Structure formats: C-alpha cells, structure tokens
Amino acid sequence: MIWEFSRALGVGTNNEAEYHALIMLLEEIASRGLKKVTVRGDSRLVVSQVTGKWKVREERLRPLAERAKDLVRATGALLEWVPREKNFMADALSNRAFSSPAREMASFPPENLERVCNTIFIAHGSADYAVDVRHRSCSCPSFRNGGDCKHLQAALSLMKKEDGNCSSC
C-alpha cells in the first residue's frame, strides 16, 4: 500500500463508498501526475462497471461511475478486481467512511485566503494554515482529523470561480 486515506461521507451504500474511495484514489494519482498505475479493488461491481464489463443499473451510481471512468482514461490506470479477503485494509477504510457521521462544515471567507502560488494558499484566521488544493490537503487540525475542512473548501470554491472547470484543481 502506497497511500491510505479515509474521510466521512455520511449516509450511503457500500457501493457508493467503494466508488468514492476509487475516485479519491484516482484523483490522488492524477494530482501526482502518475500514469498507468495498477489499482486493485475488492468491489467486483465497481471494477466491472468502471471497466465496462457490467452495465451501471443503479441510477445513483451513474455519476460516480462516469467520474471514475473519466479519471481512469485521464490517468491510464488499470483496474483489477481482487477478492475482499486479500484487500482487507481497503475494505476497512471504505466501511469507516460511511460509518462516520458527516459533519456540517463551517464556511471560511475567501478574502482570508492568500495565494502563494497557483494551487497553494495561506488561510488567515485565529491561526494560519497552509492549503494545498492540488493535493487536497490542509495543515489545520480539522483536516488532519476528518480529511476535509472549511479552508480547503473555500480555496476550491475560489479556484472554481476563477477557472470555470477548475482544470488546475
């Protein structure tokens, strides 16, 4: 295992959690500029749907499947299915994401963001935190404890306003 990450997603199905986990991983692969990475997943449904072997029948999974397919094409990632018993760490992270309650996130004023370079900001407030949009991270305790924070969301929103499709996000 090269990278491990989990964040609360709120209420949803195990298949949604598996899709979100794959999308987060593929976004991380893309943000690091990696190509042709082999991704092993224990959800036969997700791997088979993203690779086109199975149709996506459940409507709520369609946008997730399309996002994952786009990222697979962009990164050249190769998806492989592995039995769950051989991928217990990933399964535990996925289950933890939906078993943790989603938190309401406070907003952060974008005028308190200082751009250091294209995708790096300093969030000024009662304490200052470094926000790295490209790698989806922040130095604040909220991000370290939950994998998301108001500073990162404010920086992402600001960049999306500046660049409609947020190609550098």
Could you describe the 3D structure shown?
The protein has helices spanning 14-31, 44-50, 62-75, 88-99, 141-146, 150-162, and strands at residues 38-41, 78-81, 113-117, 120-123, 129-132, 137-138. It is an alpha+beta fold. The chain folds into two domains: 14-99, Nucleotidyltransferase, domain 5, CATH 3.30.420; 110-162, no CATH class. Helix 1 runs parallel beside helix 3 and helix 1 (14-31) packs across helix 4 (88-99). 25% of the residues are buried.
Layout: helices, strands, pairs:
Blueprint: H1 14-31, E1 38-41, H2 44-50, H3 62-75, E2 78-81, H4 88-99, E3 113-117, E4 120-123, E5 129-132, E6 137-138, H5 141-146, H6 150-162
Parallel strand pairs: 1-2
Antiparallel strand pairs: 3-4, 4-5, 5-6
Helix pairs in contact: 1-3, 1-4
Précis, in short:
With 169 residues, this protein is an alpha+beta fold.
- Could you report the average pLDDT, rounded to the nearest whole number? 83
With helices defined by DSSP (H or I, 4 residues minimum), what is the helix count? 6
- Find the structural class using helix and strand composition: alpha+beta
Query: What integer value in Å does the Rg equal?
Result: 17 Å
The residue ranges in which pLDDT falls below 50 over 5 or more consecutive positions are none
Approximately what portion of the residues adopt beta-strand conformation?
5-15%
Helical fraction: 40-55%
Could you name the CATH class of the largest domain? Alpha Beta
Would you count the extended β strands for me? 6
CATH superfamily name of the largest domain? Answer: Ribonuclease H-like superfamily/Ribonuclease H
| Coarse morphology | elongated
What sequence of helices (H) and strands (E) makes up the elements? HEHHEHEEEEHH
What distance separates the N and C termini?
A: 25 Å
| CATH architecture annotation name of the largest domain | 2-Layer Sandwich
- Sheet with most strands: 4 strands, antiparallel
CATH fold-type name of the largest domain: Nucleotidyltransferase, domain 5
Major β-sheet strand ordering: 3-4-5-6
